């Protein structure tokens, strides 16, 4: 593995770039809002969003008119400060998805979008998300799972970050063990692909 950050990672780590390149227009927001609206018709749900960056998911759900009681967690104080300034209507807490300080079933829905790719591996995070979810777990990937698995650690000015592509076999097996039902959506936005797993907890 080289220690030169890939152009993909340099772009992914840059909040302003993520905004400029239209990731906030990603069709995943509309898909998630439509599915949540169908699952919770005419009522609000509590939602924990893990790994929030610019508050893009909060803004996407709000713009879709979905009445969610939103809590966002992230490990980066800088990210959280920006979210608190830009979106004072939500709760923003410093916490890792691998060690969530909430009891079992604390939130109706637990969401992450483009987060699991940035962890050393996914299993602890997935199990934590399912533990604190009451009914649904939603996991979005920009690095769409595909074999062979590729685990890449990139150095940055602030340390390092992973940018992994996971083998879908064991990943989906884990989701099915923890879920009654797993719905998968493969989406495209220009040249970009993404995948969302909507899991109904067992
Ligand atoms: C690539 S960004 C994705 C942000 C946003 N969800 C999106 O869809 O654009 C990953 C975010 O996860 C955060 N993060 C990294 N490791 C984390 C962890 N262990 N727990 C919670 N957040 C984490 C980073 O600080 C960053 O804000």
UniProtKB/TrEMBL annotation:
The protein's name in its UniProt record: Class I SAM-dependent methyltransferase
Pfam families: Methyltransf_11
Annotated source species: Nocardiopsis tropica
Keywords per UniProt: Methyltransferase, Transferase
Cited SUPFAM superfamilies: S-adenosyl-L-methionine-dependent methyltransferases
GO molecular function: methyltransferase activity
Domain Methyltransferase type: 48-135
Claim: Magnesium is one of the keywords in the record: no
Sequence intervals crossing the membrane: none
A single BP term in Gene Ontology: methylation
Superkingdom of this protein's organism: Bacteria
Gene3D superfamilies the UniProt entry points to: Vaccinia Virus protein VP39
């Amino acid at each position: 593995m080289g220690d030169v950050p890939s152009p993909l990672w340099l772009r992914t780590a840059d909040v302003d770039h993520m905004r400029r390149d239209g990731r906030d227009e990603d069709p995943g927001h509309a898909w998630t809002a439509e599915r949540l609206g169908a699952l919770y018709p005419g009522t609000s749900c509590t939602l924990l969003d893990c790994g929030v960056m610019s508050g893009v998911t909060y803004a996407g759900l709000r713009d879709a008119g979905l009445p969610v009681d939103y809590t966002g967690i992230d490990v980066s104080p800088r990210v959280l400060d920006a979210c608190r300034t830009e979106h004072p209507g939500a709760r923003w807490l410093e916490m890792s998805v691998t060690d969530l300080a909430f009891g079992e079933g604390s939130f109706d829905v637990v969401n992450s979008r483009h987060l699991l790719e940035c962890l050393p591996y996914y299993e602890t995070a997935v199990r934590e998300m399912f533990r604190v979810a009451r009914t649904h777990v939603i996991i979005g990937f920009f690095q769409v799972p595909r074999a062979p698995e590729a685990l890449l650690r990139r150095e940055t000015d602030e340390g390092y970050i992973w940018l992994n592509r996971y083998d879908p076999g064991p990943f989906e097996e884990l989701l099915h063990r923890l879920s009654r039902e797993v719905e998968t959506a493969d989406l495209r936005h220009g040249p970009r692909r993404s995948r969302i797993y909507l899991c109904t907890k067992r």
